[in-house]
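Box 3.1 — From sequence to structure: Crossover junction endodeoxyribonuclease RuvC
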Amino acid sequence: MRLLGLDPGLRITGWGVIEVTGNRIGHVADGVVRSDDRLSLAARLAQLHGGIVAVLKAYEPVEAAVEETFVNRNPASTLKLGQARGAVMLAPALAGLVVAEYQPSVVKKAVVGTGGAAKDQVGMMIRTLLPGATLETADAADALAIAICHAHYRAGALSLALARAGGGR
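Predicted structure (token representation):
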């Protein structure tokens, strides 16, 4: 089964697709969707959404996962991140996929073994676990980490998401 991990950001949104067969996890693809900061906020959100729609069409994942938002010190940045996150989450939701959410510490613990792991530790573990990963940016590594986390926790998370959504695919 193919799982999509998403690491939303207004400038760069990371994405990663893994294949899960039994207890084996393999790399399918990873990359980023960039928005043009010269455009309006609405146009940038449309770019992010369209980019994730293209990923969904190209790789056909059956489930998606995203990292929960943390609150920045700058309220305007937090708001923009939330808007980007909404645009990114909307794509798989409209495609009928359940979208699971994980706290950053849970993602790090699932991949590195500790919830306080640094970004470079996450990237190093992703390269170890998924040797074919291209990891254009740390955002792509984070997205693959989110997908791996979902692979580990999906049974519980899927049940919770289905209960919240009242259904799913």
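Summary of the box: The longest strand covers residues 24-34.
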